[in-house]
Structures
1.
Amino acid sequence: MGSSDELKRAAAEAAMTYIEEGETIGIGTGSTVNFLIDALADSRMPIAGAVSSSEATTRRLKERNIEVIELNTAGDLSIYIDGADEATRHRQLIKGGGGALTREKIIAGASRKFVCIADESKLVGTLGAFPLPVEVIPMARSFVSRQMVGLGGQPAWREGVVTDNGNEIIDVHNLKITEPAKLEQTINNIPGVVTVGLFAMRGADVLLIAGKDGVKKI
Ligand code: 5RP
């Protein structure tokens, strides 16, 4: 195993063992998850359908003839599978590099098991080298940015990006996140914040990390 794509594919294929026939599966967003969608379609495993975390994932699921089901119809899910931008051994994550953090967090919250798939480059000791994405209501962008400075970060507006929910994203650089759950709560409480890309209070239940020696389960 070598390239990043091969590792992503290996992590995605390892996640297939967590899926059971007849289930409705929550599906995340990103290049690692795209390998999962392909593996799922190629396997022809009969599933009830998928709840999608983004318009991009919905398009890919439909291209691969996997039925997309609304979360409001599906109810609680047994499993959600998604990638991450950073992950710790405590299975706390930074997500949202692809801008889909809000729907991802909703589906993770509605799922009994969250399986996170990633290549080994995503495994870190402390979260925060990857800029922390924060989805904001557009009129709150500058206000929330100033609050991020107050927390010791350097906010950068992801200019030109509009999320699937019609909002904007701030990427917060240089945060050394030693208490992820506390910071998640603090940022959640700022008016205008829709979602912070810290998945600490509800982290992953299983982390599948692909490296050159195979896929490790954490
Ligand atoms: C999208 C995400 C993705 O899971 C994250 O960005 C990882 O993406 P990739 O699998 O392409 O590395 O949170 O909002």
2.
Amino acid sequence: MAIETIKWENGKVKLIDQTKLPLSLEYIICSDVKTLWQAIKMLKVRGAPAIGIAAAFGVVLGIRNSKAKTFTQFEKDLSRVIKYLASSRPTAVNLFWALERMKKVALSHSSHSISRIKKLLYQESVKILSEDKNICRAMGHYGAGLIKDNDRVLTICNAGALATGDFGTALGVFYQAKTEGKKFKVYSSETRPLLQGARLTTWELLQEGIDVTLICDNMAASLMEKGLIGKVFVGADRIAANGDTANKIGTYSLAVLAHYHKIPFYVVAPKSSFDLKIKSGRDIPIEERSEDEVVEIYGKRIAPIGVKVYNPAFDVTPHGLISSIITEKGVVKPVYKTNIRKMLGA
Ligand code: MRU
């Protein structure tokens, strides 16, 4: 996998600027936490696992200049940085999971010197990135078993290398199936308003030599009715205890369509995307974004001045519409609370 979305290099965070893709491949270098916060907010780095990794690196950037002499002072600085990073985006739980993990490292080493704690925090952020590589491979392994020769599969948004520290969640399944020699076709739904499917998923699948066809979001029903889609694979931003899954806006409509056409609908997500404290999808916070994203495309106005706009970035697919959830621990099927807890070892 040639795409390296996020890395720590020479004391800075190097990110692919995903807002520039596919027209140009550019990088941004974050040497301070503010630049990193903006990168997350503006979707220069995006996708639930990648946001988590970025946030962990953000903690390192944010506390490295702390002048704290005592742990109490350091904890104050750390909490401020964590609170700031947590305010960047609300839906992907991986962000909060990574911040919590970083906080725990500091708290469990409170008797160590401040410079030692800073070093441990850096090591933890690097670990979060390297663990994601193995996690993606494990999900790819379990998911590829669901792909058969001549399958035609549909995906939405971007749940690939650009969204993780390795080859992705839903797209990782495709990469692994290709490695296993399977022949299949992928349809990528364009994913309005920010076109992650059209811009990012097609870009990375083409680079990896996967047969990909771009469709507009409103074409999915027609393709399903014609028998052109056999399976749907999507990622997740937050999965509640009962399996209800928040993912990019438009995912729920695909799940309803898949159900109507009796097409299996698979969610591929790591353990860090589960939020077992939340009972059902009703309690998942859904990000609402700027109206500019809807009334403009590439900065060009496409709707009349003065029109009202509603722009929720995610929707929730009820667990009853999900055939199974593929995790790094195995496949949860059928999707309900006890099965999820058992699989995650919770
Ligand atoms: O707004 P985005 O682009 O961050 O939304 C991303 C998604 O909805 C992805 O499908 C999800 O994070 C899974 S990524 C492996």
3.
Amino acid sequence: MIEDKPTRTELSELGEFGLINHLASFARSENSSTLKGIGDDAAVIDCGDKAMVITTDLLVEGVHFDLSYMPFKHLGYKAVVVNLSDVYAMNAIPTQITVSLAMSNRFPLETMEELYQGIRMACDMYGVDLIGGDTSSSKHGLMISVTAVGFAPKEDIVYRSGAKENDLICVTGDLGAAYMGLQLLEREKQIFLENPEIQPDLEGNDYILERQLKPEAGKATILKLKELGIKPTAMIDVSDGLSSDLLHICDKSKVGCAIYSEKIPVDHLTYTVAESFNLDPTTCALNGGEDYELLFTISQADFEKIKDFKGISVIGHITNAESGKMFITNSNQAIELTAQGWNAMN
Ligand code: ADP
Ligand code: MG
């Protein structure tokens, strides 16, 4: 008798989002207090008048950060900020974090102190409390996982799923800078490895380096939107790249979109450095990750309220699902938007 071979499916066949969707099929929601489980920037839990949001992110040495150019203080700061970004993306205000660490014995106490100085700086900057965590040794390298909690009145929570046809698509700040910062750091690292005599040449590039090494979360935007009396219809933070994250809004909202190349905000320095790498700046803005800007949709009626606000760009509009998810080039060609966003599993 021929025995059935056990099946073996490579994770790379599913990709990060395919895997998450598959794992989500093992989750169940038994408690009526679970307002939102897997599938948004944070889970949402009913707390009476208020909702609590909770989100977690894991950073792994060699995958998400490289200690040859990432100072520990910045790493601590960034590990907190990337989680707060997900809390703001739900239109909530972060209040507490926990921090879990696994580290090999190659790290002395002093580096852990630096890491925690960075964590403390982020806590001070965003007004959140470090309330716990877990500590373990690891065989190789450093892993840091932060969980962030935040609150909002229940009716203020904004999901990825609320975008409606004709809504305007808005993004804060500028895009692609963190990706270009990373390219620069990687290039200088390679040059250094090949010839340790050569000192890294990073001068004049502070803005994009800072965007990579010390990103900020969308606190100012959330406070501004509240002040202007705007509740976005859908929102996500740009962590994987504009196209990938906009596609999440479209998929969850069951809508299409049209965004315009000429409207995508790219900083001057990002532009020039991208060109020096022979990269198309718009492609970097579409697909580069780790901007931690907020991408949101608003109803057209709210346009008047934001039109004079400098930190927000309207980059397109939501269409019906049948119209597809389109990127309109400067020469007015419509191209299907694809998620080449960076995949932290690769
Ligand atoms: P973000 O980029 O906003 O941090 P992710 O893409 O990491 O979001 O996650 C998307 C959703 O999948 C979130 O709801 C997250 O909680 C959930 N998720 C991610 N990994 C897992 C996992 N291993 N098990 C269960 N849920 C997960
Ligand atoms: Mg997110």
4.
Amino acid sequence: MIANHPPRPFHRLAFILALACLQTAPAFSQSPSIALSIDAGHVKGPVSPMLYGLMTEEINFSYDGGLYAELVRNRTFQDHANRPEHWFVHEGAGADASIKIDRTTGPSEALPLSLQLTTRTATQKGEAGIENEGFWGIPIRPKTKYTGSFYAKADDAAAGPVTVAIISDLSGKPLASSTVPVAGGWKRYDFTLTSGSEPTSANNRLRISVNKPGTLWFSLVSLFPPTYKNRVNGNRSDLMEKMAEMKPTFLRFPGGNYLEGDHINERFEWKKTIGPLVDRPTHPSPWRYHSSDGLGLLEFLGWCEDLKMEPLLAVYAGYSMKQEYVKPGPDLEPYLADALDEIEYVTGGPETKWGAQRAKDGHPAPFKMQYVEVGNEDWFDKSGSYEGRYAQFYKGIKAKYPNLQIIATMPIKNMKADVVDDHYYRSAKQFYEDVNHYDSIDRNGPRIFVGEWATREGSPTPNFGAALGDAAWMTGMERNSDLVIMASYAPLLVNVNPGGMQWESDLIGYDALTSYGSPSYYAQVMFGSHLGDQILSATLDGSANRFFYSVTRGSKNGTIYLKLVNASPEAQSVNLKLVGVTDVAKTAKMVSLSGKTVAATNTIQNPTAIVPVESSISNAAAQFSHAVPAYTIQVIELKAK
Ligand code: AHR
């Protein structure tokens, strides 16, 4: 477990403080060797209104132990076939008890097993019970209400009551506790725990204990802190707030490899992820840990709703990662039918079968959705079945939903896909060299969704060199966002505790208590917050060294968003020339993200080493010189008429 960290200010505060320290850019001294000519009278194309979004899947403990605010780990005891991992027996003074997984009894058909606590001796002074260590600790903050529940069965009517408590690992004392009467057959019990004024800590466990002999069985033991927008079964607030700052317009879910599973029977089966938690059987994920499916289809949609994102649903299309595939034709029909049901669950009115199910699950209003992706990374399918599978899904989905745009996960030869999903995991250098990738792509072909991309430098989260690679790549996507209609960095989240990460270089890191944005995250915040809706024509001349740009404009307010990336170790000066404008305000807002080295980074211990700093320039004009410091990403807002 990562050591406890003293409470530190939420990163937004650091950002605001940085904003408060308005600086004026250093006086320009060198003579510019590069020229950026902007023709504000020539709009090259529209900036896609959905250019920046999020891609998500269960990887790196993104949901369980991450965004999904559940604090109990392995709450249904399915992490390991034989052992109740993350659970321990508690034997107080003189107590004698044991725990084991019992596969013969459980609270539902979906959860047919339970944790059996057999207490041979226990007293008021020496209780016996079960303990859960949480996801690298159970985080507790002062004066906070925690909402919990569990299912239990008792061997006799007098077995209860049980004490539920959060116990400090350091003092052994309860930080919050409650008594719950337990008796008879399988039932759900609810409780709340309210902490006192002990300081914030994560070195805690959840304990459920008894003070007399007997046998109890438990399942679906759950404990939630307050969640974002107080959603029941909801998400962690700090992570939701960080994502909100990126101003994402869509959420691509549920994967990634998590959609496909290693095997067909381990795919994301959406129907098993809806409704009461006790009816969700959970499933093994390809990222080597078991998924609780607490964050199921409706929770993905709630996440979209909370952050005002449009769902971009990836439907399982008959390929799983161990080269298992379903032949196009009759064999694939049930999978297509399942995808159509899923689309109906998302978009159908309450008069439809699956829309009615969604209403029953708590959300009568349908969700707006324009894009559906068929599968994930199907170039891995060596059988070559994707052409046929895509065509069958395309036809089936369009027949019922003609307005949906159907994304292919690889180029399609025999028909024109609406959109093709390109993935790029690269070094910063590879991105610099390929920044013009989309400049000359045929505009009559499918539109492009860059559904996964990242500069993979830095671990667990990307360093400043990666942020430079990302920013350079984003300038290329923006300049071509008539074609590149959507893009989403991946992976989004990582639990930085030992064993938490399966994939290096993830945008946002966290432990049980705090979270931080990587430099790449801040680059995304800067780009996503200054987008505009028109791509302006611009050309760069001269001896630029790893210098990248994009120029867009907001047609409503006329603001020109100039993004400059100097990925070289030396300052570079640029002569900026704007034509097609009559007046440029002298003062312009500027946001800069700089690192002293490419290795510089943010960490869970030092979360705000690199954050955007707002300043202003006072020499903006139709022609002006501007110096961009070494290793710097800048956004300048030019007010031009
Ligand atoms: O983002 C991590 C993985 O990379 C995704 O699951 C997969 O689609 C890609 O190969």
